[in-house]
Specification:
The protein contains nine helices and 14 strands. With about 240 residues, the chain is an alpha/beta fold. The protein has a single domain, classed as Metallo-beta-lactamase, Chain A (4-Layer Sandwich). The strands form three sheets. It has a six-stranded mixed sheet with strand order 1-2-3-4-7-8. Strands 9-10-11-12-13-14 form a six-stranded mixed sheet. Strands 5-6 form a two-stranded antiparallel ribbon. Helix 7 crosses helix 9. The longest helix is centred in the C-terminal third of the chain and has 11 residues. The structure holds fe (ii) ion. The site of fe (ii) ion has 5 residues, from loops.
């Protein structure tokens, strides 16, 4: 069985596919992803915010067992924690149900620790290019700073889960604590530039009508990826 046949992959839209009736989830339109190996039944959840028990039940209903969590970055709508006065359940509450490792970029660890309340002993801090084995499926973590210091994109079988680094239209904000517009420019023009155009982009929010798109199309249509120098890019897009 090849990787594509073995790959278990689900995209959950907050407020629609789970956390139905949750006003914050409905407003924030986050995507949560599940990645796993259909042959071994091992799976990980990526950014399991809002209703972690529902997400766990969904993958267990598919015959999968949770082996870990991957966080794209520390923000509460992805990792869980406090968002402008609202508490969002997430990684900490999930770990109260099932004790699994939490994979983050090493530079994001203190931010996630403070924001989510997850115990430091649960984190596995990674460098760019590190891989996580989920059964027989290899997941590659790419450090993509800019939105936050340790933002990461997650690549598996020609699919890039991009968190708040890159959307189908636009990119993540660069005016938040830990943001760095110059790093975002380098992420978009260098760190993600080598990915093949056939790669499917799966973003962290539904800010476009389509749930995903191929990079060849995103590179053509997304203004933040238009060819330009750093000075012009920063003048146009840093906030
Ligand atoms: Fe974010």
């Amino acid at each position: 069985m090849n990787v594509t046949d073995r790959l278990y992959f689900r995209q959950f839209l907050a407020g629609v596919d789970f956390a139905v009736g949750d006003a914050v989830a409905t407003q924030m339109v986050n995507y949560v992803y599940a990645v796993g190996d259909r042959e071994t039944g091992d799976a990980v959840l990526l950014d399991p915010a809002y209703r972690p028990r529902e997400l766990l039940t969904a993958i267990e209903g598919d015959g999968m067992t949770l082996r870990g969590v991957i966080l794209t970055h520390y923000h509460a709508d992805h990792a869980g924690g406090s968002l402008v006065g609202h508490h969002i359940d997430g990684t900490r509450e999930l770990l109260e149900i099932v004790d699994v490792p939490v994979h983050v970029q090493a530079t994001e660890t203190p931010w996630v620790s403070e924001g989510s309340g997850v115990d430091d002993g649960s984190f596995v801090g990674h460098d760019s290019g590190d891989t996580v084995e989920v059964g027989g499926i290899t997941v590659t973590l790419i450090h993509t700073p800019g939105h936050t210091p340790g933002s990461q994109c997650v690549l598996v079988d020609n699919r890039l889960m991009s968190g708040d680094t890159l959307f189908l239209d636009g990119c993540g904000r660069t005016d938040l604590p830990g943001s760095d517009p110059a790093e975002m420019y380098r992420t978009l023009t260098s760190r993600l530039a080598g990915l093949d155009g056939s790669t499917w982009l799966y973003p962290g929010h539904r800010y476009a009508s389509a749930p995903s798109a191929q990079l060849v199309d995103v590179r053509r249509d997304n203004a933040v990826l238009a060819p330009m120098g750093a000075e012009q890019w920063l003048a146009m897009f840093s906030r």
